[in-house]
Amino acid sequence: MSVSAPVDRVLERIAQGDDVAAACSAEGLACQRDVSVDAHYDGKPVCTVTLPWVVEGHALLLADETVAASVAAERLASLASALAMPVCVIRRPVAA
Q: What pTM was computed for the model?
C-alpha cells in the first residue's frame, strides 16, 4: 500500500505508541473515531463495519503483539477487499 509521507509518519508514530489523535494533530491530518462504513462482497453491501479510526481516508486497525502477524495480515486482506478505502494494520506492544 502506498501512502503519503504525512500519513506514513502518523502510522510510524502510532506504531511507537503515540495516541492516534495526537499523532494526526502533530502532522496536521484529519482523523475520525468510530466511523461506520459498508463492507461489500461482490459489489454489494453486506454489513456495516465500525472502524476504530480513519486517518485521511485510510482505515486504521490496531493489533497488539498478542495477535499473530499472520492473523493481522489475514484481517488486512479481508477488510481491504471489503472496504472502499485503504486499510492499515498497526502492530503495537501490549500496554503494561
A: 0.78
